[in-house]
Design brief:
This protein has 70 residues and is mostly helical. It has one domain: lambda repressor-like DNA-binding domains (434 Repressor (Amino-terminal Domain)). 67% of the residues lie in helices and 0% in strands. It is built from 5 helices and no strands. The chain is globular, with a radius of gyration of 11 Å. 13% of the residues are buried.
């Protein structure tokens, strides 16, 4: 079974590997920087539309983020 914690870890990993700052990523997504910080810490999950845009901006497959490769 896939857990929310696994998905949050994958989001945080993809953000870190992108090399983008939290502020740059937030600007590209049209969200606030504290929201990106919450994604990294696992305190929040992006809405589906934001998740789709996040994957596009980070050039990461949504199947990877959603742990469909397990």
């Amino acid at each position: 079974m896939i857990t929310l914690e696994q998905i949050q870890k994958r989001i945080a990993e993809a953000i870190r590997q992108s090399g983008m700052t939290q502020t740059e990523l937030a600007n590209r997504l049209g969200i606030k920087q504290p929201t990106v910080r919450q994604y990294l810490s696992g305190r929040a999950m992006p809405a589906l539309d934001t998740l789709a845009n996040l994957c596009k901006v980070l050039d990461v497959d949504t199947n990877y983020i959603l742990c469909q490769d397990l």
